[in-house]
Amino acid sequence: RNILANRLADLRKLDLIERENCLGDRRCYNYRITERGRKLMPVITALRQWEGWDGRLSELSTKEYTDQCS
Fold first, then answer.
1. DSSP letter at 40?
2. 15 SS3 class
3. What would you measure as the largest C-alpha separation in the chain, in angstroms?
4. pTM, rounded to two decimals
């Protein structure tokens, strides 16, 4: 397994993200942040502010990530 697959599996075990098959392609998955994952947003935001990172975390709470399999 690759690093990304391992990290996604770890996040799923912690119930921070959920995975579902894409419609029409069993090799492709959609990943969504769970309610438990959303509850961590204030902590992640505070850590990023402390670190001085100015990216946008708000997009993560609503964005759906798709693993495009080849």
1. T
2. coil
3. 43
4. 0.63
